[in-house]
Amino acid sequence: RARWAGMEGVCGGQDSARAEGARAEPLSRRRLLSAGGLSAGWGASSARACGSLAMEAQKEALQRIISTLANKNDEIQNFSDTLSHTLKGVQANSSNVIAELDEEFDGLYSILDEMKESMTNSIKQEQAHKSQELQNQLSQCSNALENSEELLEFAARSLDIKDPEEFSKAARQIKDRVTMASAFRISLKPKVSDNMTHLMVDFSQERQMLQSLKFLPVPKAPEIDPVECLVADNAVTIVWRMPEEDNKIDHFVLEYRKTNFDGLPRVKDETCWELIDYIKGTEYTLSGKDCLFTLLKRLLLLR
After folding, report:
1. Quick one: three-class SS letters along 206-239?
2. Tell me: the pLDDT tens digits for 230-258?
3. I need a surface site. Which of 169, 198, 229, 252 has the fewest CB within 10 A?
4. Alpha carbon distances (Å) from 272 to 38, 45, 78, 178, 267
5. Distances (CA, A) of 48 to 35, 36, 40
6. How far apart are CA 187 and CA 151, in angstroms?
7. Helix, strand, or coil here: 50?
8. CB contact set of 158 (below 8 Å; sequence gap of 6+)
């Protein structure tokens, strides 16, 4: 019991001392604790400031990403518009060249039909001429045969004449008629032959030429000469040259578009491509007050 009481005394003493120590806590310790609390407050503010800066940096990075995506979408949309415009151009130009091809072949068909008609008429005229000549000879032969048969019958009947005087008279008549008979005056050779080989045809070479028909060879593209090109007084002078001399060039075709956008080609909400045909020289001047930039689509040459 004494030991337990002593321990209780010790414990009680310790609790009392702890309470007194808490009440009699030195000022320096309280100040130190207060300073620690102030440091913790400044640390929280610093963390919030750092987080705000990081968020601003992330926002700027995100805005750059959004801007990049928007620009890329704009480029893709412009490219899609260009593809759609090019697709329409392919369809329109294909229809044009097919129409030109039909026109050229119709011209060939027309020439062939005319030549066929002309040559057929020549054959028919030759046929009519020969037929007429042969028909005339047939008529002459028929008349000669008819006269000859009558004379032959008269001569046969004359053989039965008994009276010498009548017989002599008949004989003289027969002789005179024979002398004047057409059977002895007509030609027994056909005036014309049935040969028509002089009107035969052989279009082997022409057929080979037709089979060798092909599209025009594509000449080398003209080269724009930037040194000689000039922009002045709301006008653009475009100068070009051929990489190789070609005397088969008939004329040039220039395609351009007026725009106020200096960048990738745009189709939507802008003017369409314009075409200038039959340019005989190697330069051309475009003028226009709304022409800040002139985009040259292509420069073609036609043989």
Report:
1. HHHHHHCCCCCCCCCCCEECCCCCEEECCEEEEE
2. 988 888 899 998 888 777 788 888 888 76
3. 198
4. 72, 61, 14, 98, 8
5. 20, 19, 13
6. 19
7. helix
8. 167, 170, 171, 174
Spacing of C-alpha 114 from chain mean position: 31
Report the alpha-carbon distance of residue 301 to residue 281 in Å, rounded.
Answer: 11
Q: Which amino acid is at 292?
A: L
Q: Please tell me the number of Cα atoms within 13 Å of 93 on its side-chain side.
A: 7
For residue 76, how many other CB atoms are within 10 A of its CB? 10
- Angle between helix 27-158 and 164-180 (nearest 10): 160
Q: Residue count of the chain, please give it.
A: 303
Strands (E), 43-181: none
Q: For 79, which DSSP code?
A: H
pTM exceeding 0.85: no
The pair of three-digit structure tokens given for residue 21, joined into one six-digit string: 């120590």
Q: What are phi and psi of 110, to 5 degrees?
A: -65, -45
pLDDT tens track for 180-224: 888 888 888 999 999 999 999 999 999 999 999 999 887 788 889
Q: How big is the chain by its Cα radius of gyration, in Å?
A: 59
Rounded to the nearest angstrom, the gap between the alpha carbon of residue 9 and the centroid of all alpha carbons in its chain is 114
Give every CB contact of residue 81 below 8 A, 6+ residues apart in sequence: 266, 267, 268
- Which tokens go with 166? 């009548």
